Amino acid sequence: MNLDTRVPAVETLGVLETAALLRELTAGLIAVDDFDAALAALVRIARDAVDGVTWCGFTALRAGEPAGVAASDARLAGLDDLRHGPDTPAMEAIRRREMIRSEHLGRERRWPTWTLRARDLGVHGVISAPVDVDEQVIGAINLYAGASDALTTGHQLTAMLLAEHAGLLLAAVRDRARQAALAGERDASVLGDGVVGQAIGVIMTQRGCPAPEALEVLRTAASSLSIPLREVAERLVNTVSRQRDG
């Protein structure tokens, strides 16, 4: 007996669409180092890539900072913020650490105030999936449908994979932001060193480049010669001084 073990076309399409979504999301966030910009890219990509999803939002809770919100449509941004208190799909997903789904808001009783506002804005279905970013940030990605019963179990799987992938990418974004901030502090400290500042000025004059590029030239030279940055700067300044005196 021959058994047809081929995956149904609709299921295959869902897998391919999800793979394309994760690939596009990675490409869109891989070089970003601003968290809010990353959230904006995330909701835009998810809205455009997931069939049946009309809008997408993100609710982020950051320790010691105001809650962050991103929305693919500014008109719906209020659905993702905290003005409705804990009675929203996003906050329930965050609190319970599990996916929340309502495919027909006309029959929904869990979040009365939020649901009334959502329906007034044309939202008829929602999936909220919790997103763990790092020890300081948690959140939920919210997929909204403009029609009832448009969100299926397939969308739940996509939302779960999207949340997992987004968490990893957003954690990397925050790490890059921290590294950039530390690098900026180190650069400010280095630039405060008189002889290094003089050397940077020399390189800027010689090459017609900005200070960050001149500093990188010094760092490259120090690495190549395996000597401290300050010693490279001193050698350059002394060389230039001797040329001027000569």
TrEMBL record:
Gene3D superfamilies: 3.30.450.40, Winged helix-like DNA-binding domain superfamily/Winged helix DNA-binding domain (1.10.10.10). One of its GO terms (molecular function) is RNA binding. InterPro entries: ANTAR, GAF, GAF-like_dom_sf, WH-like_DNA-bd_sf. PROSITE patterns: ANTAR (PS50921). The keyword Transferase does not apply. Residues 176-237 form the ANTAR domain. It comes from the Bacteria. Keywords: Transcription, Transcription regulation. This is GAF domain-containing protein.
